[in-house]
């Protein structure tokens, strides 16, 4: 079944995704930037890898910046064990905003998921282990990794009970075959553990409950925190209730901003700090107008 889906995916899925992303790039600057930055991906990657040592190598893949933050505790632990680390990203927001200050850690975009590109990707990196953060899995990359006997891990895995792709007959078959190519799935809690074991029963995937590295990242960030009066100078926050809304999307703002307006009728001192997920100038202007 895995080989059958490999054929279907490459005959139908890959051409469809390629056309879809190309059309979407016309309207979305972030997708357009992703195409542009991938043009010299392999030559840039090959040059970057030349500065690394000849240690065992781990490829850690994150979709965007949030998953990268979850990967940082793993990066710190793997560096202590003298692994060279390659960080790959799908989204420009992850690639552009990730701050890497180690000489034994490099970053790259993940190539489009065609067979030839993923073979080239693995030929250049030669990873001993591949760690996917949270969810961003690619069939050809996993398929080729399985053929090469490269160990694969899905870290911080969450099972979404609202995700219909686990129950729609044809789609669920593809998804289960995708997940069955992973060697280890590190889940967060009992709910995730029981559901993954149920969906992947008999697949030979090791499902281990280890918690969420995001909490470690927050814990270490708090320890390094230095109090600075940047956002709240002077006494602007004195004797006020403060509401912080972080990494918000339009759907969040459409619900919460009217609620804030209503709350201000009862408490004029309420202070709201709003940080949109993508704080572009046009986005800030739209929020101000709303």
Please tell me about this protein's structure:
This protein is α/β, with parallel strands linked by helices. It has 2 domains: 220 residues, 3-Deoxy-D-manno-octulosonic-acid transferase, N-terminal domain (Rossmann fold), CATH 3.40.50; 48 residues, no CATH class. The chain contains 12 helices and 9 strands. The strands form 2 sheets. It has a 7-stranded parallel beta sheet with strand order 3-2-1-4-5-6-7, with helices on both faces. Strand 1, helix 4 and strand 2 form a beta-alpha-beta unit. Helix 3 packs parallel to helix 6 and helix 6 crosses helix 7. The mean pLDDT is 89.
CATH homology group of the largest domain:
3-Deoxy-D-manno-octulosonic-acid transferase, N-terminal domain
How many structural domains?
A: 2
CATH fold-type name of the largest domain: Rossmann fold
In terms of per-residue confidence, which ranges show pLDDT below 50 for 5 or more consecutive residues? none
Helix content: 40-55%
User: What is the makeup of the main sheet?
Assistant: 7 strands, parallel
Top CATH class of the largest domain: Alpha Beta
Overall pLDDT: 89
Beta-strand portion reads 15-25%
Q: What is the number of E strands?
A: 9
| Main sheet strand line-up | 3-2-1-4-5-6-7
